[in-house]
Every structure is written in C-alpha cells, then in structure tokens.
Structures
1.
Amino acid sequence: MSNIGFIGVGIMGNAMARNLLKAGHTVVAYDIVPALLERAVGYGAARGESCRDVAARSEIVITMLPDGPEVEQAVLGAAGVLEGSVKGSTVVDMSSISPLVAQKVGAACAAKGVEFLDAPVSGGEPKAIDGTLAIMVGGEEAVFAKMLPILKIMGSSVTLTGAVGAGNVTKLANQIIVACNIAAMGEALVLATRAGLDPDVVFNAIKGGLAGSTVLNAKAPMVIGRNFKPGFRIRLPQKDLRNALLAAESMKVALPLTSSVQQMLMALMNDGKGDLDHSAIVTFIEEMARTEVKRPEPTKA
Ligand code: NAD
C-alpha cells in the first residue's frame, strides 16, 4: 500500500481519492477550497496544509485540477509539489491540460529527479465514482508500469499512448471528435426540423447507419427532449478545444472544424450557458436558423 497525495478534490478528484482510500491506500488531500478539503477529511483522508506539505508526506502525488495554469501553480509554484517532493517520487497529473504544459511540468520534475506522467481521463463523475474511467497516459514505460496498479483503481481502461504530453494529445483528440460530432448533429437536426420533419424519426432512421455514433445516441435524445442538464459542462470542452488549438498552432497544424466549434462554445459561455451540458452546442446553430429542434406539436383531431 502507498502513501498517496491527492491535490484537487473537486468533482472528479473527490471520487477518485475516495476510491484510492477504499482500496486501502493512505491519502493526504489538499484543495484551495477549505470545504472541499474538509469533505475529503470526512471520509478518511489526512489533511494536507499545502501542495508542498502533501508532497513531503507522499511517495506518489496525483493532481486533478481545472487547467494548465493551476497545475503549474500547484507543482512548480511557491509552496508547490516540487518544493516538498523527494528524489524518486512520482507525480501523476490527471487533469486535462495543454500537452505543452504537461511537457514543461514533466521537464521540471525530471530536473529534480521526480518521475512524471500525464494521465487525463474520460468518463465524467459517474465513471470516477465507479472507478471505470478511461485513462490516457503519457510518460516512460517503466514509470507507467509502476503506476498501473494505482491507475487501475480509478479506471477500467488505462493506456500508455507515448511520451510525456501524449496523454493530453490523446484526450484532445477525443474532445475534438466529441465536440465536432455534437455540432454536426446540431446542423443536421436543425435542417431536418426546419424542413418539417420529426427529429425523433430522423434520429431513428439514421442511427444504425454510418452516421450513427455513441455521441449521437447519447446526445440526440437530450437535444430533442430539451434536456441540457450536465453531464459535461460547456466550459470544459471550451477549455479543451482552446488547448487543442494552442497545441496545433505550436505544430503549425490547421484545425478548421475545431476552431469553429471552439468559437461556438465561447459564444455560448458569453450567453450564460457555460454550465449547460455540451449537447447545448446545438442551441448556437438553432439561434442562427431561428429554429428549435423539438418534436412536432400533436395535430388536433
Ligand atoms: P473541479 O473544478 O470540480 O475540481 C478542481 C479542483 O481543483 C477544485 O476543487 C479547485 O478548488 C482545486 N484547485 C484549483 N487550483 C488549485 C490549487 N492551486 N491547489 C489545490 N487545489 C486547487 O473540476 P473537475 O470537474 O473535477 O475536473 C478536473 C479536471 O478533470 C479538469 O481538467 C477537467 O477538464 C477534467 N475532466 C472533468 C470531467 C468532468 O466531467 N467533470 C470529465 C473528464 C475530465
């Protein structure tokens, strides 16, 4: 059993730290929000005083933070992980961040003799609770092998995808496919509704063909039923696609579809929709067409 430090016990980190405790590991938790740290202490975690304190008391430190700037602050900043960690310990960042930041943090860890993996996840809170996340890992094979038993407590699919940064490149690939899929579905359903068709009938007609997808099956019923309860809040893919565009620019790669959908997400956030489910991307297309995707009114007898 290991002494594991866990920094960032928000929606995802809370469930993940809990699973590590249930598996018998000791967990030292830290979060800048005192009430969230209190919640973790309430179910058996030891109270960390700072990121540095957590690192000094742990052989493995996991971070689950909103984005790259928070990871840089927590690991490289004042009273951060690297001020407390000992040579030979391991930092596993499971946040979804820019691969460029993951590489920067990984290099700073390596310079201090600390091992580093980037290991973002897919699956959301329900899978974090069940311990069935998909975990996409970047780093050295030996470090991956050492961390695998710990990662398997939190995820049912754990894949080494390449060197440090590769985990986040894989996560961004996932996010591009999901967000662009939702936007394409939105255009299709708006067109069909405006043409006077029942969107349910259209969905059922096409879902078994080449246009069918997990995204279509999960999100078309939500849109048609006007249910935008999250799920995965708009503000997260907005951040992810921004990170995809920054990474793409550094490699001189054009991502025209990602760029359009990222602009839609930004507009939706400005419209106060940042906390709706990402299926609400469709509402941007609906507004441009002045057409709402919904079932036709029943005809009066
Ligand atoms: P969250 O905002 O609920 O949790 C992040 C936590 O980090 C917060 O509690 C915050 O107080 C804490 N924090 C921020 N800065 C800190 C610092 N410097 N030191 C210590 N604590 C700090 O976010 P979340 O939904 O748990 O997501 C975490 C990451 O997982 C994000 O990168 C997100 O994109 C990714 N993700 C989320 C989901 C989801 O469905 N929520 C799914 C897959 C991946």
2.
Amino acid sequence: MASTSPSSAKDAPERGVTSSLSYADAAAGPCSTPPATNPEQSIHLLLCALTWGAEIKKTRNDVRKFPDGFLFGTATASYQVEGAWDEDGKSENIWDHMTHTQPCIIKDCSNGDVADDSYHQYERDVEMMRELGLDFYRFSLSWSRILPSGFADKVNEAGVAYYNNLINEMLKYNIEPMITLYHWDLPQRLQDLGGWANPHIVDWFSDYARVAYEQFGDRVKYWITINEPREVCYQGYGANTMAPILDFKGIGEYLCAKNLLVAHAKAYHIYDEEFKPVNGGVIGITLSAYWYEPETDSEADVTAAEEQIQFENLVIFPPVMKEKIAAKSEKQGYPRSRLPEFTPEEIEYVRGSADFFGLNHYTTEIVYRNESVYGIRPVPSYYDDLETGFYQTQNRKMVPWGLYKLLTKIRESYNNPPVFITENGFSTTGGLEDDNRIRYYRGYLSAMLDAVEEGSDVRAYAAWSLMDNFEWMQGYTERFGLYEVDYDCPERTRTPRKSAFVYKEILQTRALSTSTTSPTPTS
Ligand code: FCB
C-alpha cells in the first residue's frame, strides 16, 4: 500500500494567512450581508458550543489532540457549486438535463445553472480555504466540461484551464487538491446510451480518468474515482430520488453497481500502474455509510442491522446479498439472479483496488426485522430484497456514537485500512447562527477521536461543505455550508457562519479543547 501521508500539506507555510478572519472585507460586495460574528465572538461561540450534550458517554476535561499529520479539509462537488452549465464548451450532464426538462422535480424548482458560480468565483473559494486554514480541499471534476462528447476524442481546453486555475491557486497556499472524478454528473450523451447500466462505461470512465490524470496528475496527489456508488446506483437507477431517475427497481441498481465497480477498478489500475510510479499519489473510492443500530438485541434485529450494513455500506456484493437476491429472483421467475455475477477475473481485478477507504458519513438509523417488513415493498426492489425496517433515531441526524461504531467496525472487520472521512456535515435551513452545526461537528470529531484512540487509522476529515450549494433534489432549501451563500446576489456572496470560526479554531489548535462529549447509543 502506498503511503497516504501528505508531503507538503503539513508544512504549508502560508496557509491561513488571513488569520484574523477579516471576513467583512472578504465578503464585501453589492449584496453582501455583514458577518454576524467577529474573531472575539468566536471564543464565546466556542464556549457555548462546549455546553451541549445532555446524555454523556464520556466527558473529557483535557485537550484532545488530533494525531500528527492529520489532515483537515472541506468538500464540494462540481454540479453543486460550479454553475456555468453551458459555458466555454461544456455539454449537458444528467442534472442539467433533468432539471431543464422537469424543473419542479427539485423541491424549490431550482437547478445548478449558476449554483455558487464557482466557475467564476474560484479565487474567493480559495480565499475561504485560507481563512479556514485547510490542509486540503476535495472537489470534483465535471466530466462534460472536460470531455463534452462524453468520450475522450476531444479535450475541452477551457474546461481544463478552469481546473488548472483552481488547482494552481490552491497550491500557491499549500492547500492540497483532492479530486473526485465522478460526483454524479454524467454527460447526458452517455446516459442516452444507458449510463452506468451499460458495461461499456468501464472504458468510457477509465478513458476520462486517464485524461484527468494526464492533465492534473503532476500536481494532484489525492484521487477518488467515484462518490457514493450506493447513491449513484440505488437512487438514480433503482429509485427516482437522483438523476437520471430511472426507477428501474430491483434490476437497474444492480447492473449499475457491477459496472461501476469494474469501472472504478480499471481507473484505479491505470493510475496505479501508469501514474503513481511517476507522480506518487494515492487513489481510492468513497462509499456512503450510515451506521445501522439494531432496534433490540434480538437475533432478528441484530441480523437485520448487519445485513443492512453489508447491503448498503461496506462490502459491495457480500455473500448475504448474493444469496438473498438469487433466491428471490428464482422465486420471482427470473431465469438468473437479478444481481449480475462477477467473473473470477473481475473479482481479482476489483480486489484491493483502493489505497484508502473514503468514507462519507452523516447519520445513524435503527433497524428491525419482524413480520411487518415482508411484502410491503415493490417487487422486485432493493428494499424488498433486503427485508428490513428502519428509521431515524430520536436525535434525528446528530448521532456521533454512530460514527464511532462505524469506524470500529471498519477497523475490526476490514483489517484497519487507512480511512479518509471525505464528507461529514449537518444541514440547516440557513442563517449564520448555526449552533447545531457546531454541536454536530464537535460531537462527530470527538467520536472520531474515540475510535482513533482505540487504533482506527483515520487520516483525514473533510467537512461537508465549504459553503452552501445545490443540495440535489432539495435544491437550495437545505444548507450544509460553513459559509452561507447569498443566492439573491449575482456574485453569490459567501459569508462565514459561526461554525466557520469554530472549525478554523480546531484546525489552528489541532485539538478539541476541554469537555468534549459523545452521546450514548440510547440517546
Ligand atoms: C452526500 C453527497 C454530497 C452532499 C451530501 C449532503 O451524499 O455526496 O454531494 O449532497 O450528501
């Protein structure tokens, strides 16, 4: 396994030069709102943020340090922030297509045509990274901006120039770029050919990956092939909750998953064999993983939770999934399993195809299995195959102990791989006073440290998100940003929230200070 330690990030001399956080100047613009916080207030905010937590698993009155070399960042994705949807040669992707043909499929009838206008505001974006003192910034490439036909016949120089500008601006301040090749915005032309359900996508994706390595690999040392296979395939192909809303239940998601995994593996091998020896760098895939807690300690609930973890999160195509789907398919009259087989060669090809485990984690759900879960879902479908019931915990989205349990499971069941937490975050409906977000970050970072102290090899953490952005089907109604974005303003003015000050403080001190708490599993 290649080293996943950063070389230059730790030594960044100029990072965080705007240490006094003069956001008022930075945010100045015709539509800017004055920041509600100032540096003095941040100390007060920090203290307020420490007083949370009615149910406490551990209380520590010491300063909890993050490990040496630990990397902090934030994350975004191309369609969610870039805008400029048809500028400089970019072609239509599946989100452009869906939102233009069915505008009110999005909660607020919005789209990402302009989004945060990062295509034009990238210097401000990097300035915010410096304000926060980030070690790295995770962003994704828009496939249809780089290869407008979808294929690697012609590289769009203007699209490449945008990413070069962004990367070079970040590197000026020793902020490491972390690139996701695919964060959900497939060129529409490839969707017209079946998208991830077409096995030829293995070649289309790996050709695109090669172009990206060639263009940016000299400067970019952290690569993620695909963001969240489960969301791409289940939500886009097996349901109608993400583009391309195919809703081809019980079949589409599984075809997609197989092709996606092989495509990932091919992109991994190209990097590993041709680029890593020259450029160094590491490459992995990012999975979305909730923690699934059994409702009771009955065997049925415990088995259900374990199966849900395996189906949804950690092992792609685990034996339990293969057996269940094969048996159901037969009963349903299909001549073969709806879950496509991997050949032995494909299994070997995919095995070990990641230098690190990219983990997106947001929350925890409670899982059960009893008579009520049978026969209530469409047949066939992913959740009919899984046969569980699940719901959010009382604390809804704020369940830090779930992250602790998940990291422990990854350490114990998968031979303690290096983990990069590539997304973790909390949404509000807007406003600068985001005490709940602060509470969330502090709780989750503390839970992460609990796992690290027990041996989990977590090396990086990215807050989702640097700033508010187009939150897929929720449009701009759900806000995840450390910075608030003013969508009434053409400049999309960015203003730091309280949480931005707290995150900056954590990054500066490399510690969570004084009483840090983790709620109990029963909370
Ligand atoms: C993740 C996505 C990311 C963002 C967050 C809130 O599943 O990867 O783009 O939407 O959820």
